[in-house]
Amino acid sequence: MKSFRSIIRNEYCLRTQTKREHIAATTVRHHFGSEIEVFCPRIKFKKPTRRGVIWWVEPLFPGYFLAKFDVPTHLRDLLHLNGVSGAVQFGRVLPPVSEKFVSELRQEFTVEEQDEAILTIEKKLGVGDEVELVDGAFRGVGGLWWRSCPRKSEFRFCWK
Fold this sequence. Notes:
Blueprint (H helix, E strand, L loop, with lengths): L9 E7 L4 H12 L4 E3 L2 E8 L2 E8 L4 E6 L1 H9 L4 E4 L11 H10 L1 E2 L5 E5 L8 E3 L9 E8 L4 E6 L1
Parallel strand pairs: 3-8
Antiparallel strand pairs: 1-5, 1-6, 2-5, 3-4, 7-8, 9-10, 10-11
């Protein structure tokens, strides 16, 4: 008599190489197709550099991404994929990530090209915000934001 095991799919946290979370997530997507749901949330924000302010994209969970799969069926294959270095576990137990947590997190992110979840953070400066000049003769000088003139490329801030 054959015994049939029901497939239980839960969300689990997989470890990746640093700065390669999206590459590992894409590899899992291409290898397994629709069998495994992958969620690798990233945030996009402006960051000051010597060249000026640029857009920067970083993972929300550095070194990790989430995947929904059946452990006995898929875990061994997942751990041998390029970019996946392991699964988060306590001893020999793989703790599932709460379904409620993942669904709330997914609602915050928009899905862009190739199923990449990216949240763009655009902070508008308000009166009293701390700022630092990143270009020109006053590079590195900090102060408090006072106001900006909408029709001119002019701003005012108070020195610290």
